[in-house]
Every structure is written in structure tokens, then in C-alpha cells.
Specification:
- The chain contains 2 helices and 24 strands.
- The chain has 278 residues and is mostly beta strands.
- It has one domain: Sandwich (Jelly Rolls), CATH 2.60.120.
- The strands form 5 sheets. It has a 7-stranded mixed β-sheet, with no helix packed on it.
- The mean pLDDT is 97.
- The chain is 4% helix and 43% strand.
- Strand 13 and strand 14 form a beta hairpin.
Length: 278
């Protein structure tokens, strides 16, 4: 288990960060290493952003020192979305198979979680978000067919996209964790418009299906103090509650959004007009 701790920043301080400091505090560059589990514990609502590229032999999800827990899900819930080859996940002996873009919710109380790939030649890539949980809810696998789907935007505004709500309260019971996947259509590069913040929740974005030699520019910061982070394929970024979370790519891409915080109201957003951004 490789893990690191990220502290929260006050927006008045963050607006003075240079490129190096912004990337150090908010960007998660390498999530997938063969046979390893990577975890970033952030003080923004204590969300954990993680990744694993397990072998056939599997990797056990272990607690790390900062959790002060007997097992990883003692006081936490976990969302997993597979962005690689077929995966096999065992939770207290129950086995779940995850294909590409399929999700799994694991509630608190699962003592032994094993992450594995069906094939070492085509390993799974398991992107994970974990949040504190005050109650135990049942484990549940969620496919794209089970998702609540919303299509927004248009090609004319370069933001025609499909939002797949996977681990949200209309699909699966959770304490505070929400996760979903937004797929941009060919020719569209912008998310998320209109720009917004939500002080009740923080968010994390994971960008993938970014074509070779292409990049995504992620925008963050207060609406009138925006900053940007250039990102490559299969990288994640932490978005504080006071920050917008938007991006434009040099080609279309897909991203996974995850939220933790005070409520489960997906529509709880403090929107701003694009003309207000600075």
C-alpha cells in the first residue's frame, strides 16, 4: 500500500500558489502500478482517492496508519470503477466481476477486500473513492445499464456529453459517497458548464480515455480567481468545495467524478455564468 496525506487549503492562500505548488497539492499523477494500491487521503471531507492495477494473485485492501482502523472499511464506504481489463473483487468471500466502466459499491463493515485481475496480460485498473460512513449499506454492483443517464450540452457549444450517474442515491444507498462517469461526444471538449461550486461537498475528477499525445486542461479555483492544471491520461485532481471544476481537452475524453460531503443532492450547485469567470 502506497499512501500520502494532502492537507486542505484556504482559497485566500491557494490563489497565491505557483504551478509547482498547485500540482503538488491538487494533482494525483500516477494511480496505477502493477500489483500496487495507491491512496491519497485528502482533508477535504476526508475523501480518499485511490487506484490499483492488481495482478491475478490479487492485492488486499489494507488500512494505512492515518486511518487508525483495524481494516480499511471499518468506518468507511468505497466506490470502485474499473477502467481496465476484467476485474475480480472479493469482499468478505463474496465475489464480484467488474468489466470495463462497471462500478461496485462496498459498504462499511467489509473486513477483507481483495482486488484482482482476471488476466495479467490485460490487468484491471480500479479507480477508487472512499468516504467516511456512519452506517452500513449493502454492497452493490452497478453497470452502465443500471445508471441514471442524462445527456447535456450540444456540439455547437463543444460540450455534448452523457452523464452516467452510477453510485448515487437514486441507484444505490450510500452514506455520502457519490460517483459517476461523464463521456464527451466526438467533437466536444468542455465540461462542466455552467461552472459551479458547492460548499456542501468536495469533488475529485479522474480523466481517462484521453487519446495518445493529447491532454486535458483542468480549471479550478474560486470563480473570480481561476487557475489551471494540465493533465495527462489516467490522472486525477482534487477539487475543494470552494473551487470550480471544469476542463477542456485537445480531444474528447471521459472522466469519473466523485463527491463526498454534507448531502446526497446531486443538483445542489451554486452556478455561475461563464461570463463571470476570471
Amino acid at each position: 500500500m502506497d499512501w500520502e496525506l494532502r492537507y486542505a487549503a484556504h482559497p485566500a492562500d491557494a490563489k497565491n500558489y505557483d504551478t509547482e505548488r498547485i500540482r503538488k497539492d491538487f494533482l494525483v499523477e500516477e494511480l496505477f502500478k502493477s500489483g500496487k494500491v495507491k491512496m491519497v487521503y485528502t482533508m477535504y471531507d476526508r475523501l480518499i482517492v485511490g487506484g490499483s492495477m492488481p495482478t491475478v494473485a490479487g492485492s488486499k485492501l489494507e488500512p494505512f496508519e492515518e486511518l487508525k482502523a483495524e481494516y480499511f472499511l471499518q468506518r468507511r464506504e468505497l466506490g470502485i470503477i474499473n477502467v481496465g481489463g476484467p476485474a475480480i473483487i472479493k469482499a468478505d468471500g463474496e465475489e464480484y466481476k467488474l468489466g470495463y466502466k462497471e462500478a461496485l459499491y462496498l459498504g462499511s463493515g467489509n473486513k477483507e477486500v481483495i482486488l484482482a485481475s482476471e488476466s495479467d496480460a490485460k490487468p484491471a485498473k480500479l479507480y477508487m473513492n472512499s468516504a467516511p460512513a456512519h452506517k452500513q449499506f449493502p454492497n452493490k454492483k452497478v453497470t452502465l445499464a443500471d445508471a441514471e443517464v442524462v445527456v447535456l450540452g450540444s456540439l455547437e457549444t463543444s460540450n455534448h456529453r452523457q452523464i452516467n450517474k452510477l453510485l448515487v442515491n437514486s441507484v444505490v444507498e450510500t452514506c455520502q459517497l457519490q460517483m459517476g462517469m461523464t463521456e464527451l461526444k466526438t467533437g466536444s471538449v468542455w465540461n462542466t458548464m455552467p461552472p459551479h461550486t458547492h460548499n456542501r461537498r468536495m469533488e475529485a475528477y479522474f480523466y481517462f480515455e484521453v487519446p495518445d499525445e493529447q491532454v486535458v486542461c483542468h480549471f479550478m479555483g474560486q470563480p473570480t480567481e481561476t487557475r489551471h492544471i494540465w493533465m495527462k491520461n489516467e490522472q486525477a485532481v482534487i477539487s475543494p468545495s470552494w473551487s470550480i471544476h471544469s476542463a477542456a481537452g485537445t480531444a474528447n475524453y471521459t472522466f469519473i467524478w466523485g463527491m463526498g460531503g454534507e448531502n446526497l443532492d446531486y443538483g445542489d450547485m451554486d452556478t455561475r455564468k461563464p461570463q463571470e469567470l476570471r
